[in-house]
Write a structure and sequence with these properties.
The complex is a heterodimer. Chain A is of the alpha/beta class. Chain A is about 40% helix and about 30% strand. Chain A has 2 domains: about 5-220, Rossmann fold (3-Layer(aba) Sandwich), CATH 3.40.50.300; about 230-295, Alpha-Beta Plaits (2-Layer Sandwich). Chain A contains 11 helices and 13 strands. Chain A is globular. Chain B is mostly helical. Chain B has one domain (about 10-305). The model of chain B has no long low-confidence stretch (mean pLDDT about 90). The chains are: A alpha/beta, B mainly alpha.
Chain lengths: ~325, ~300
Amino acid sequence: MGENVIEARGLTKRYGPATAVDHVSFNVAAGEIFGLLGPNGAGKTTTILMLLGLTECSEGTARVFGRDPMREPLAVKKLVGYMPELVGFYDHLTAADNLYYTARLIGIPAPERADRIAAALARVGLSGEADKRVGAFSRGMRQRLGLAEIVMKNARVAILDEPTNGLDPQAAVELLDLIRSLKATGVSILLSSHLLDRVQSVCDRVALFNKGRIALMGTVAELGRQVLGGGFAVEVEADGGIDVARRLASLPGVRNVEEPTAGRWRLTCDRDLRAEAAAEVVAAGGRLTQLALDEPSLETIYTRYFQSTQQEAAHAA
Amino acid sequence: MRREGSPWQGLGVVLLKEFADHLTSARMRVLEWLVVLVALAAIYAAITQVRDVTAQDPFLFLRLFTTSREPLPSFVAFLSFLVPLMAIGLGFDAVNSEHNRRTLSRILSQPIYRDALLFGKFLAGLATLTVSLLVLWLLLIGLGLIMLGVPPGGEEMGRAFIFLLVTIAYAGVWLALAMLFSILFRSAATAALVTLGLWLFLTVIWPALAPAIAQALVPSDDEAALIIAGQMLARLSPSTLFGEIVLALLHPTTRTLGPVYLSQLQGAVMGAPLPLSQSVLVAWPQIVGLVAACILLFAVGYIAFQRQEVRA
């Protein structure tokens, strides 16, 4: 993955007696998509604002490309593209004019502006809408215009706050595709969301936030192993066959076999045992009808994690 | 902690964009028409009145500013009423609209400081007001030339020009006040109402209230002390300051803006006009006060804006 583009060390933000962000540390490596996930009010946006130097941190340090956003905010903000939650534009201006304004604020030389704006709008599929007023845009188009701004800026890091918030499923999928294509051009991405399942698919690594702290951090699979204990879950459905459950259980690497309904088995295993399980079913004389590997879902991990921490807390009390 | 980079970066961009927004906004067009129509009526009334009444006035041109004819008030009275309205109209949603449209954090994530945004907005508002007032001023002088047929003297033009500058400063005070409330209140309607309320209070109620408060505060039978105290209190209102400056500038015979003791009048030629420099000197404290109020209000807004959270 190479060097880190964002490093946060013990970032803390206090508002009077309340602590919004409590000693948060994480790195975003070059070229990865890092997700800050967690419920609303968990401190994700505050963390992002501290990385941008838009709010002061009470404690800790942040580095973006090795620069301190508190001391050199202009240099940091030149390299970072930020799309706030429910990003807004000037409704009375056209999409292109909104980008022209930003282009001049960024300091893009005048001869380059038109080309870069046109290219950015084309990237997000808004070429046809360039001369329409943003007032007539849907939420999804506004979010895409927000991404166009980041593309135009040639930002090396994109920070997206709740990018899929307020979008219908179709628009959300399109936006996530755009985010993936942004990553393909070498942009590192930090995104925050409370919609765990929706962004799970795009994130290389995630940090789960809870009450201002990072509760869990790693790839989704790592978190699954850590919290759910059992690494992989394989689902097998078959017709007929003799003694299938026992034969599956005797496979090396299988820890547990459940049979929720007749003809359906759920295996908890140490590794991906789909091929072995299929061969075993066939060997037992069964006709394999379905075989699936259950990816651990972030939602499950998250819920399970907080159930267990709450139980621990209850035990301690 | 020292921050690197210039706080002025992006100032020109913000200024131009806001200026263009003001000049093309429907709100500004309505305000401009209101001001131009009302001012034209006032000028016309003044010109007919001046033609009827004064033939031998050495400051005939200045009469255009100050003469009223029933039922219309004079040009200056109109301005002192409409300029705050225009300035408030331009400033009451300067910052909170950026919050409400959710553009603030996006703009501030570009490589500029907050200073540039606030300064740019203030200067754009002031530039808009300056353009409107300049047009109005030229309109008045042009109409005066055509309809009176008398060219204004150099000193008259000097007085009229300083009056223009003072009016711009007066507009700046209300613009800074409106922007301050646009920073403090998230809702544009609340900001507009509070600013308008404060304007009415300072313009209409405060001048009447000031002597009463002075009477309560100054336990003295000394008539002069009471009047001076009342006047000091009344001068807390920018409208009072503006009125006094207008009096000194456009009525060259004005010798003082406070009470005068008889001893001070010894040797004075009553009714003789003061030279321009002396008139400016008479109103100098008021002029400085007006500019200072503008800077102070802006500074308070500036500090509030710097400390404000960006998030919506």
